[in-house]
Amino acid sequence: LQPEDAQIKYWLGKAYLQSGEGEKTIETLEPISKAGANNYEVWETLAEAYFAQNDTANALAAAERANSVNEFSISPMLLSSKLYLANGEKKKALEFAQKAATQDAANAEVQLLLSKSWLANGDKLQALQALERAVHAKNTSLEVMVDHAKLIKEINGAANARPLFEALVQKYPENAEILNLLAEAQLACGDKPAAELSAQKSLKLIEVQPKMQQFLGKLEFDGGHLDQAIFHYSQAIAQAPADRAVRPPAGPDAPVRPRAR
After folding, report:
1. What is the pTM of this model?
2. What's the average model confidence in pLDDT over 26-35?
3. Which helix (H) or strand (E) holds 65?
């Protein structure tokens, strides 16, 4: 391939990845990676495409290749850390997250991943410190703020995370995912009425949410509202018939209407 042809192919592969077509990205970029072995951008994009296709081995190999070509790019370091974390290789995950932090300590995504890696390695204090840096970093996004609140819940409990979720709901009232997380935190704090209200708001935004239907079904059943419990469990099963996790409990605790005499 001529250099200009390779560049066109690279941008095409990148466009495929951005549109969610990982397979086409791989088909487009694999020939370039063999012809231009030192193009770190190609290797980075390939690594992301393999990752999107759940091909962990090739994703790691491509990320490591990108990092060997350009040791200052944090993208392959972050991807390597994510992959090692997903594989349960906690020390390797932390190693790559720390490398990325050395390159760009003010990056919110870097600090968030560093926090997750520290937590996986059992160091809650370091995890919390990295979380604080993530929240005040230069590129803090909604995703970072949500992950921050979720990690606070995991580390310090639902009572500490609840105000964070409440603040996010105030800022993003049309976000069903945040409402769901708030409902779960409220329930963990023992505030069933607030949890029910948040779950109902979420379902008004997006009705097809089997897990939230199941969540409300259990709340209604625990509150003695059998008809409402059956309704929500029925909705959950209709929306996800193959998912046994959304079904009501079996046995004597199952929400079943009493037979008419």
Report:
1. 0.70
2. 83
3. helix 56-69
Q: 26 in helix, strand or coil? A: helix
Residue 216, both tokens? 């409300």
CA distances from 57 to 31, 86, 138, 142, 190 (A): 18, 12, 32, 30, 43
Query: Which residue, chain included where needed, has tokens 């605790």?
Result: 253
User: Residue type for 107, please?
Assistant: N
Token pair of 222, please?
């625990």
In the numeric block, which tokens belong to residue 135?
């929240």
Distance set, CA 78 to CA 98, 117, 141 (Å)? 10, 11, 17
CA proximity to 113, closest of 137, 89, 88, 96? 96
Q: Tens digit of pLDDT for each residue in 199-215?
A: 999 999 999 999 999 99
Neighbour-count burial for 176-204, b at 16+ CB within 10 Å, e otherwise: bebbbbbbbbbbeeebeebbbebbebbbe
Residue 31 · residue 10 · CB < 8 Å: no
Which residues are CB-neighbours of 142 under 8 A, at least 6 positions away? 168, 172, 175
Q: Is there a contact between 9 and 1 (Cβ–Cβ < 8 Å)? A: yes
- Does pLDDT of 2 surpass 60? no
Structure token pair of residue 153? 């819940």
Residue 74, both tokens:
């944090």
**What is the pLDDT, as a whole number, of residue 182?**
97
Question: Which tokens sit at 118?
Answer: 């520290």
Query: Residue 17 has what pLDDT?
Result: 87
Extract long-range pairs of 66-72: CB within 8 Å, 24+ residues apart.
Answer: 66/40, 66/41, 69/38, 69/39, 69/40, 69/43, 70/40, 72/103
* Residue entry with tokens 């779950």: 199
Q: How many CB atoms lie within 10 A of CB 164?
A: 21
pLDDT of 254 reads 55
Query: Average model confidence (pLDDT) for the chain?
Result: 88
